[in-house]
Amino acid sequence: MIRVSPSHSSLRRFPVPTGTSPALTTPVPGALNNERARELAAQFPLLQRSVMDQPLVYLDSGATSQRPQSVLDAEFDFLRSSYSAVHRGAHTVAVEATDAFEQARETVANFVGAGPREIVWTSNATEAINLITYAFSNASAGSNGAGEASQQFRLGPGDQIVVTESEHHANLVPWQELCARTGAELRWIPVDDHGVLDLPAVDSVITEQTRVVSFTHVSNVTGAVNDVAALVDAARKVGAFTVLDACQSVPHLPVNFHELGVDFAAFSGHKMLGPTGIGALYGRAELLDVLPTFLTGGSMITSVTMERSEYLPAPTRFEAGTQRISQAVALAEAVRFLDAVGMENVATWESELGQRLAAGVAQLPGIRLIGPQPGVDRVGLASVVVEGVHAHDVGQLLDVAGVAVRVGHHCAQPLHRRLGVTATTRASTYLYNTTDDVDRLLNELAGVRRYFRLED
Fold this sequence. Notes:
- Catalyzes the removal of elemental sulfur and selenium atoms from L-cysteine, L-cystine, L-selenocysteine, and L-selenocystine to produce L-alanine.
- It holds the Pfam family Aminotran_5.
- The protein is an alpha/beta fold.
- Helix content is 35%, strand content 15%.
- The strands form five sheets. Strands 4-10-9-8-7-5-6 form a seven-stranded mixed sheet, with helices on both faces.
- The two termini are 21 Å apart.
- 50% of the residues are buried.
């Protein structure tokens, strides 16, 4: 691993400048371009800072996006004026908090084409997927409110759960554990040499024994956009439930869960201009109402005796304990920001940035592009392998140049293993990035192998 001097350590802390908060302006719909992206970036305080005495180029939104001032203000204003427990108190502040909490649910539900009763608040998408798997497990065990209607979720030996070879660990490990608990078999749809899903293999992987098909909408490693319609259709033909990992699609593409036809979906707030600590599970209302509970305790019950408990309808039956109240309010404000920009505009701009990334990398000698090749549909994300240089070393050199990227296996070890690499360097854009940001990354990448004297 490369070692940089203490003055250039990527662990060095830089104070955020004070007195530089931008004046707020409400985004207006319209095609995104460099000028508009810069205008939007001005609304994000962190993007105004420098790193290593260089203007920051933030290309790690696939991991965690930045927050505009309006989102920061929305959470602080709520905490300052209406913070209280929800669904518990009858006093004025508690009622205000509950109203804000439920209005946030409605705002987020509308954003993803769902009804408010179909959105369950979770801490993140990982918890949302675990909620599903443990609910299926409880149905199989006949516990946590499992009734006759929940028998449709029972799993056992002879049943199959299908995922893909490109899944984030959050949409793989919970299913592995569910198979271990129930005796079901885990199967997966393979990827090709570029890490793109092998759709012709679907018909042989999904069989009459398949009960669940869980897959990512957009790969967090390759940026490939999977054919949701084809996978949903294949699952429906055998009567299997579909679960969509929408973490990399909800922030970047127009998404309507009803139109996509999936049964369940998961996404996280921190990848879509919102705070950490909040995500959501989408489930079709008729399924959530009969799905056994996962976490149990206060606030999700109708009656409790010393012998047994009765649970509220969805979504409250899945929201035990004190909830993510201010985070929900902030996420709703993030959704309003995205709605104001227009998700079609976001998707078009990021597609352009993604193609610029792919085409630029393809022209760099000694650097391999992972995922769809130039000209093939992708979001504004690209992972690369620099021949002869570990991804962590690449990331440190870029950091010294003020370019923030992600390095490692991105919680997708099976995909990296399939592609014959241990780690990649990933750049991911968002609505506040420009073509200049992409070009700055490409220019820095071009010099990595020369730095290590692997080429002239």
